[in-house]
Write a structure and sequence with these properties.
It is built from 13 helices and 20 strands. The chain is of the alpha/beta class. It has two domains: 6-178, 3-Layer(aba) Sandwich (Rossmann fold); 188-389, 3-Layer(aba) Sandwich (Rossmann fold).
Length: 391
Amino acid sequence: MLKDKTILIGISAGIAAYKICELVRMYKRAGAKVRVMMTPNSLHLVTKLTLESLSQNEVFVENFDIKEYKPEHISLCDEADIMVLAPATANTISKIANGICDNLLTSTVCAFNKPIIIAPAMNTNMWNNKFVQENLQKLADNNYHICNPECGFLACGTEGVGRLCELDTIYNKTVEILNENKKLAGKKIVISAGGTVEKIDPVRYISNFSSGKMGVALADAAYQMGAEVTLVSTFEAKKPYKVTKLQSAIEMEKEISQYNNNVDCIIMAAAVADYRVKDYSEQKMKKTSDDEIEIKLVKNPDILKKISAESNTTKIVGFCAESENLLENAKIKIKNKGCDYLIANDISRKDIGFSSDENEVYILDNNCNIEHFEKDSKINIAHKILEKIFE
């Protein structure tokens, strides 16, 4: 979704400056062209050479570095589609809010008439300073997009609000702003993610290796495309859309079923356990002298098959994670489950398997027509899946 877009990153002198190296990589992986400029003091925290190597472009620091007879701050403004200030220090925020242009970064912001994202990061007391908050409010009132800092352990040794927000938050906000064509506006989509947890006793449980990254990528992509999104997850997730956390397959069946025929699409990306423990022990099971132990399992409800059979108006999409005979098993599964689409991926491959940030999938419709999406980041694969489902 960022292909052929130019993103201008401005780095000021906060300790979180080192994190922006990974943000540059995220943008590059998504197909964007990245330009970077830095305040002079930020060079003490991350090197110009590092950022030039990652962005594959010259990094700008000086205010009057003239190229092709154009002042550099004007040239960068003309080229970029969006500007991202991260980390944004209290000093830089205050300068921008009051029109001060004393370095390349602040001069560029003053001349930039396209979307600007600001991701503050600073000491807690600085963040709570009345004047800093007034300056931030001034920027927010003038259509700057603020990605607020999070609470956590800070470099100064204290704990509180001030830590740079997650890079995914900045990335998703960038995609959301640049994605002018909200193809899924008005659509309601429910997506499940993660591996279910089937308890044995208060201490132990049966689960699987699913990280939930593909489900979250689908939820992020749907939100970026304008949909009203609900993520039903087996883990905590801080997102700008609704997230419902649960554990077991029984809980997931109850939660997912209430949306059937009330939303436009349900995507079952979660790895739902096929079996659960028959007799849950209310107390911790003690170790005995026996070398073996027997735990009886019973079948969990087949959520995908159930909602597919009961669906009249909702599109149902399932996932097929296989370690062998991928397409053969996928064809059998979509006929058995009765869903509208099935996404098949090979979990035996280390480069796209569990916990990977990339994937390669085949999407089958209920007539077993197959389309192949080659290896790509999970967020890009998610966009392609949604484009196909709602083409």
